[in-house]
Design brief:
Blueprint lengths: L8 E2 L4 E4 L5 H7 L15 H13 L3 E8 L2 E12 L4 E9 L7 H17 L4 E7 L3 H10 L2 E11 L5 E9 L4 H12 L1
Parallel strand pairs: 5-6
Antiparallel strand pairs: 1-2, 2-3, 3-4, 4-5, 6-8, 7-8
Length: 188
C-alpha cells in the first residue's frame, strides 16, 4: 500500500475519512474557538485548505483525512512530507475542534495513522513537527511515545512574519511495538 492511497481508518473512538469537499461545512463549525491558537495553523478558508490538501495528495506529497467523530468532521490530519523512496512520513497539519481536544480522539487517530504507516506502508520513520511554543502539541506528541530529535531554530516564517523554531520528534520501527502498546493501553 502507498502512503498516498486514500483509505478509511476507524476504531470505536474516531473515523479518519479521505478529506473531500463534503467535509467543509462540519470543518467550518469545528474550527470555532481556535482563533486563540496563534502557534498552530487553522485554515481561514476551509474550502481552499481542502483543495490545497487534495492537490498535495494528487502530487504525492500528502495524504489528508477528515477526523470524524459521531458522524461529523471535527478536524483534519495528514500524512505529509511523504518521502516514498526512503519510506518516511510526517504526521502533521493536524487541528481538532476544542470539543474533542483532551478526549480519546487524538490518541485513537494517531494510533490508526501509526498502525497504517508502520504495518500497511512499511515506513522506517514517522516524524512529528510542532511550533516551539505549542506546548499542548509537544506534550501530546511526547505522550504518544515519540522521541525528540531536536529543534530547528529559525526554521520558517509564520503568517505574521515572526520566526518559528520547530521541534522535531520521531518514532522508529523498533519503537513501534512499545508505542502501540502504550497507546492501546491509554484507550482501554
Amino acid at each position: 500500500m502507498l502512503l498516498t492511497d486514500p483509505v478509511v481508518l476507524d476504531d470505536p473512538h474516531v473515523r479518519l475519512e479521505p478529506l473531500d469537499p463534503s467535509h467543509a461545512a462540519d470543518l467550518r463549525h469545528a474550527r470555532d474557538g481556535l482563533e486563540y491558537a496563534w502557534y498552530t495553523s487553522v485554515p481561514a478558508s476551509i474550502e481552499d485548505e481542502i483543495a490545497h490538501r487534495i492537490a498535495e495528495r494528487d502530487a504525492g506529497r500528502m495524504n489528508p483525512w477528515a477526523v470524524v467523530v459521531d458522524g461529523r468532521a471535527r478536524g483534519m490530519t495528514t500524512f505529509c512530507n511523504i518521502d516514498a523512496d526512503n519510506r518516511r512520513v510526517e504526521i502533521g497539519y493536524t487541528w481538532l475542534s476544542p470539543s474533542v481536544q483532551r478526549t480519546a480522539v487524538n490518541t485513537a487517530a494517531k494510533l490508526l495513522l501509526l498502525t497504517h504507516a508502520f504495518e500497511a506502508c512499511d515506513v522506517i520513520a514517522v516524524e512529528f513537527r510542532t511550533h516551539w511554543h505549542n506546548r499542548q502539541s509537544r506534550a501530546a506528541i511526547e505522550r504518544l511515545g515519540a522521541k525528540q530529535d531536536g529543534v530547528l531554530r529559525n526554521h520558517r516564517f509564520g503568517p505574521d512574519g515572526t520566526l518559528r523554531d520547530t521541534v522535531v520528534y520521531s518514532i522508529l520501527p523498533h519503537e513501534w511495538p512499545t508505542v502501540r502498546r502504550g497507546l492501546s493501553a491509554r484507550l482501554s
